[in-house]
Specification:
Length: 316
């Protein structure tokens, strides 16, 4: 019994330690990749080739003055960024990195991910409301409409693969894939990627922040580590949606020659690179255009994909 508890604690420490390290260095990776795409160097000052920049940024934010607006709802103002960060990090508990390495395996793993992710949206909404600022409130309201809408499309895009896999267990979804699910569900894959960009507030769909329109959206009034929590949550969510795409559409840890966890990380960072590349390439959408894409184009397509998948499975 003690051996099992110790092993579980070790897995928790390893997964969350590595996850936090990845999240911190994703900021460095993004700045470097976008810098080279724009023919500049990116961070170079701290450490060799700027490798210590995330640590320097963390120390700077930790010691930065913590400002709380006079009209803010204090308790909610402090709790909102923690809700976002905690909801993002606990999702790693059910991500199977390989056949034998995951913190816990539950038979409703995908439902768990979608449920906890939807709670994280409340942190952004509460941050906008609790700041006592018109700009933050507008950012929170836009976030509510955007993220709840695109959660629907994200969930529907996973229905086709789930019908084929016959399980919500993330490890079981990988195990049943003789070939990647992408081959059978290309339409669902495209919808998932677009919906994921909207769900995690990434360019070109970063409308809750929208610096050119709303100053900084829902986190306008935040500073110091509370400000950092929102960005840690965003990058953690980017890792999570990349991991779900890897598991559901690219057969997770499966691959020739290399160990399973290596294949998982290769596929994971391919998606991460894609999200960074999109940020460096596309301009921000107008809000009305973005919502029209979702409700008028993506929703009918993803519902049709579910119907066609069901018909094909019945015929086969």
């Amino acid at each position: 019994m003690l051996h099992e508890i110790g092993l579980a604690l070790l897995r928790i420490i390893v997964v969350f330690g590595v996850a936090l390290l990845f999240v911190a260095y994703l900021t460095y990776l993004e700045r470097k990749i976008i810098g080279h795409m724009q023919v500049r160097m990116g961070p170079m000052r701290v450490g060799p080739h700027g490798l210590l920049q995330p640590i320097a940024d963390g120390l700077k934010l930790f010691f930065k003055e913590d400002i709380v607006p006079y009209e803010a709802y204090k308790l909610t103002f402090y709790v909102a960024p923690l809700i976002c960060l905690v909801c993002a990090l606990v999702l790693f508990a059910v991500i199977p990195v390989s056949k034998s390495f995951m913190i816990t395996r539950i038979n409703i793993g995908l439902l768990y991910v979608l449920s906890i992710a939807s709670v994280g949206v409340l942190g952004i909404i509460l941050a906008g409301w609790a700041s006592g600022s018109k700009y933050s409130l507008l950012g929170g309201l836009r976030s509510a409409a955007q993220m709840f809408s695109y959660e629907i499309f994200l969930g529907f895009s996973l229905m086709g693969p789930l019908m084929i896999a016959g399980s919500l267990d993330l490890a079981k979804i990988v195990e049943v894939q003789k070939v990647p699910m992408l081959i059978y569900q290309p339409v669902a894959f495209v919808i998932y990627i677009i919906a994921a960009l909207g769900e995690i507030n990434r360019v070109p769909f970063d409308l809750p922040e929208a610096e050119s329109e709303l100053v900084a959206g829902f986190h306008t009034e935040y500073s110091g580590m509370k400000f950092a929590y929102f960005f840690l949550a965003e990058y953690a969510n980017m890792l999570v949606v990349s991991a779900i795409a890897t598991i559901v559409f690219l057969a997770g840890w499966k691959g020739p020659f290399l160990p399973g966890w290596v294949w998982f990380l290769i596929k994971l960072f391919a998606f991460v690179y894609f999200f960074i590349w999109v940020r460096a390439t596309f301009p921000r959408y107008r809000y009305d255009q973005f919502m029209q894409i979702g409700w008028k184009i993506m929703l009918p397509i993803v519902l049709a994909n579910i119907v066609v998948t069901g018909i094909v499975m019945m015929l086969i």
